[in-house]
Amino acid sequence: xxxxxxxxxxxxxxxxxxxxxxxxxxxxxxxxxxxxxxxxxxxxxxxxxxxxxxxxxxxxxxxxxxxxxxxxxxxxxxxxxxxxxxxxxxxxxxxxxxxxxxxxxxxxxxxxxxxxxxxxxxxxxxxxxxxxxxxxxxxxxxxxxxxxxxxxxxxxxxxxxxxxxxxxxxxxxxxxxxxxxxxxxxxxxxxxxxxxxxxxxxxxxxxxxxxxxxxxxxxxxxxxxxxxxxxxxxxxxxxxxxxxxx
Length: 246
Prior knowledge:
Elements: E1 2-6, E2 10-15, E3 25-28, H1 34-43, E4 50-55, H2 59-71, E5 76-79, H3 100-112, E6 117-122, E7 125-131, E8 137-144, H4 146-156, H5 175-201, E9 207-211, H6 215-221, E10 228-229, H7 233-238
Parallel strand pairs: 1-4, 4-5, 6-9, 9-10
Antiparallel strand pairs: 1-2, 2-3, 6-7, 7-8
């Protein structure tokens, strides 16, 4: 069985038997025929012809991937969904609107770490979700990740020079370093402030679990809370789901 995570800007995959020991492979989506390119690239790295997929993409993309997978000789492709009766309460007014990535993050964190806990997933968007002392979802927030913060500044202003490789500085001496420093400080300040406010609401202490592509930067923002960094959190959850959850 191969586990595939379809994010907003990147996709990652790993065989189920390697989740505990190896980091997943990852790529950015191709600008054209993204589903077909993804299928070819992943199949070139594995003999697994049964795939389990967690997708935050739209239905059209998921169906295009299913067609490409079947055309390439795949045996079975399963898209993970949130079951009608999940093993913990979701705080959303309409649980059908809750993201599958956030659900899986919470499922794995709940299985591996003490409650109450706070899960930070620092990807294209940053999601921060809390589990209360009973192991139920207490709620969460979503805000732009580093790349989105940079792009929004570039689109919304004139004459801003954004060099993606510029070194961030708190006291910048160029527009590029000022932007890099401001975006990083804003990102880390948001993570720190939200985590500390949530921990206070949960009684003053919580286990902090950090995942996602920018997990290291997010974790450094809350270093005082001794966070657990686990970039395979979602994949661990995908090994836990039952057939009725797919």
